[in-house]
Amino acid sequence: MIRAVLLDDEQHSRQVLCEMLTEHFKNIEVLAVCENIAEAVTAITQHHPDLVITDIELDSSSVFDMLQGLPGIDFEVIFTTAHEKYALQAIKFSALDYLLKPFSLEDLSRAIDQCQTKLNERQSARQFEVLFHNLKKDTKKIVVPTSNGLQVVSLKDIIRCQAEGNYTLFFFALDKKMLVTKTLKEFEDLLNGYDFIRVHNSHLINLNHIVKYTKGEGGVVAMSDGSEVDVSRRKKEEFLQRLAKL
What we know:
Blueprint: E1 2-7, H1 11-24, E2 28-34, H2 37-47, E3 51-55, E4 57-58, E5 61-62, H3 63-69, E6 76-81, H4 86-93, E7 97-100, H5 105-121, H6 124-136, E8 141-146, E9 149-154, E10 160-164, E11 167-171, E12 177-180, H7 184-190, E13 196-200, E14 203-206, E15 210-214, E16 220-223, E17 228-230, H8 236-244
Parallel strand pairs: 1-2, 1-3, 3-6, 6-7
Antiparallel strand pairs: 4-5, 8-9, 10-11, 10-14, 11-12, 13-14, 15-16, 16-17
Helix pairs in contact: 4-6
């Protein structure tokens, strides 16, 4: 049984979420339904829940302030929000669960399944460290799932990413590699807006690690780890435009 606390300052949102949980999730016990941070802190302190499902923006404050003010976070969190803002990117980088309002029953079910997996592994502490780091600083870190758990990686250290079926192989300096249990497309979407570009169906590269570009039909990029990556003809123009802006 997953013991949960709900936090949202909108009455309709609280009601909808509570009904979805009580009607469709027999493995969820709702301990408290809170409308503000003060109520949530009291509920978390008293009940020690396994899961907190919370909106991000509450009145004039943010739920991140509440989380950072707690003496420790020994529960999982599913964030809900109606806004695509910078904080959502930080959540994605931290591999924490989130739901965009209005969300469906299927969306909620998927998030709770992921929560159950994390509860079994108890790996949330480092994810929140990365979340708070990314909210405060320009230097970005990302939490990536591997077969052994979760790994924290700085974006600047990633040289390139190579598709391996439903997995992605990360390449770092000194021939260090890491197999990550997500597709290359997921990382292409996640790193959109940063210095990464998909130059080929099988490759996503860090523009800051390019050593040389050799012209050709699509061309070839030499990377800082000594590897060479083909640029597809379809991606050539976009790649050269991005390269010129560095």
